[in-house]
């Protein structure tokens, strides 16, 4: 079950909040692009890397040539051929019927043209994506592809195709840039009024959107053979030991490592997406609590509730958090960043003002001016490493120095509360649903507009 739920987010990655750039975007606050899919081009590129070795030969390759001129850029025959190979690989992997080559080629060329036009807009605007955001996206993808780290993923791609990782990283930079451009240009064209939200909430469609949802973590003791009673008994014994330690304050990460467990964050799932044992276990848990172990076909599972929401209620446990961030950059090495955060921590332990040090030293522009104040946040809004430390830090105390993909942090939980967000949740879900319906339509309109104003000369393959 853990594997199945993890597959729900396959081929996705998380761009980061523009102001508090290590916080996950919250769909319920109208920030629709918290999890975006690979573009067709990048997905095709990754697929083409997988088949690269099988398509090379000792025969000399023909000279490349320009097949499309797009404003000040070009599309080469090799670009189209690579995208075609990758697209075919993806279609076959999804067990769909391949369209005729001429139909697929026309669509691939259309996508490449639109991509070039958008990249031209981005280049002229001078917009860039920072390395931390790119690294976080690639780290997520690497994990989904079975690589334990970015370095391992880099070696894997380069072993398959020379310079494969550098090409892939550039594709990700372009995808993130295009996604941000689309969100900026298209979102400003969409107007969803309070009346639109009221109408949706009074419609039959709202019942589906407002079904009860569960956010949870899975901690699983794997079982190779569920029919082996001795193996099941041993796994159950291990699971009971683990849950007792978790309830006593042990971290999930330490248990996963110590007992070689599987699982992890599962995100939000509607009740009809989950098997009955999961619903029964989660329905009786408060946020942060662990279920009793129970057996599935894959192992003995322990669930931890990270929240429940729906039309019947959305009581959210929130944390008022401050933090200080020190990140690496072209002028600050990793070692220098660590020395800096350690020095700040020593000042805090000696009684210095958290707010004053955050204003002076924090590299998070969204919170530094407010003394590091992130206001109220809840489980599911922060990246995993930050959330784990937030949940473990007692109110009024400093966390130890810890690291996320975006740098070194110190946090302080000032207070906690349970807040009834039912009505706000209902309206946010309604707005999100309407936004998701309208966005593809308006995106298509915008793409047609920029295509019509661009210079495009298709010379043919």
How would you sum up this structure, described in words?
There is one protein chain. By secondary structure, this protein is of the alpha+beta class. It folds into three domains: 183 residues, Porin chaperone SurA, peptide-binding domain (Triger factor/SurA peptide-binding fold, Orthogonal Bundle), CATH 1.10.4030.10; 95 residues, Chitinase A, domain 3 (Roll), CATH 3.10.50; 105 residues, Chitinase A, domain 3. The protein contains 17 helices and 13 strands. It has a four-stranded antiparallel β-sheet. A four-stranded antiparallel β-sheet has the order 10-9-12-11. The protein has a three-stranded antiparallel β-sheet with strand order 4-3-13. α2 runs antiparallel to α7. The chain is globular, with a radius of gyration of 24 Å.
Defining key terms:
disordered N terminus, 3 domains, globular, Chitinase A, domain 3, alpha+beta, 13 strands, Triger factor/SurA peptide-binding fold, 461 residues
């Amino acid at each position: 079950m853990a594997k199945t739920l993890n597959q729900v987010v396959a081929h996705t990655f998380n761009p980061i909040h523009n102001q508090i750039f290590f916080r996950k975007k919250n769909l319920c606050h109208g920030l629709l692009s918290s999890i975006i899919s690979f573009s067709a081009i990048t997905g095709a590129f990754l697929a083409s890397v997988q088949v690269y070795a099988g398509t090379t030969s000792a025969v000399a390759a023909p000279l490349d040539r320009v097949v499309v001129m797009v404003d000040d850029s070009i599309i080469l025959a090799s670009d189209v051929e690579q995208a075609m190979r990758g697209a075919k690989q993806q279609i076959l992997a999804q067990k769909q019927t391949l369209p005729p080559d001429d139909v697929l080629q026309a669509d691939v060329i259309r996508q490449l043209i639109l991509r070039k036009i958008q990249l031209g807009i981005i280049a002229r605007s001078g917009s860039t994506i920072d390395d931390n955001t790119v690294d976080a996206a690639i780290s997520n993808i690497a994990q989904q592809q079975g690589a334990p780290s970015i370095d391992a993923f880099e070696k894997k791609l380069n072993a398959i195709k020379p310079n494969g990782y550098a090409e892939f990283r550039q594709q990700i930079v372009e995808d993130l840039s295009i996604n941000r451009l689309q969100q900026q240009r298209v979102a400003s064209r969409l107007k969803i009024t309070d009346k639109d939200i009221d109408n949706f909430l009074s419609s039959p469609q709202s019942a589906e959107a407002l079904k009860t949802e569960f956010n949870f973590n899975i901690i699983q003791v794997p079982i190779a053979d569920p029919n082996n009673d001795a193996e099941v008994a041993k796994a159950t014994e291990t699971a009971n030991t683990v849950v007792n330690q978790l309830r006593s304050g042990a971290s999930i990460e330490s248990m996963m490592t110590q007992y070689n467990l599987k699982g992890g964050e599962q995100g939000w799932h509607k009740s009809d997406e989950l098997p009955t044992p999961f619903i029964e276990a989660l329905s009786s848990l408060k946020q942060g609590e662990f279920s009793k172990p129970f057996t599935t076909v894959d192992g003995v599972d322990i669930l931890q509730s990270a929240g429940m929401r729906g039309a019947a209620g959305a009581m959210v446990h929130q944390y008022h958090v401050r933090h200080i961030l020190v990140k690496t950059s072209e002028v600050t090495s990793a070692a220098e960043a660590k020395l800096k955060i350690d020095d700040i921590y020593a000042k805090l332990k000696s009684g210095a003002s958290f707010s004053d040090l955050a204003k002076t030293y924090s590299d998070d522009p969204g919170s530094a001016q407010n003394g590091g104040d992130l206001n109220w946040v809840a489980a599911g809004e922060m990246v995993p490493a930050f959330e784990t430390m937030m949940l473990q830090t007692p109110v009024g105390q400093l966390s130890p120095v810890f690291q996320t993909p975006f740098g070194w942090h110190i946090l302080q939980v000032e207070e906690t509360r349970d807040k009834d967000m039912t009505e706000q949740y209902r309206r946010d879900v309604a707005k999100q649903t309407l936004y998701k319906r309208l966005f593809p339509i308006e995106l298509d309109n915008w793409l047609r507009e920029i295509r019509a104003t661009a210079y495009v000369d298709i010379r043919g393959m």
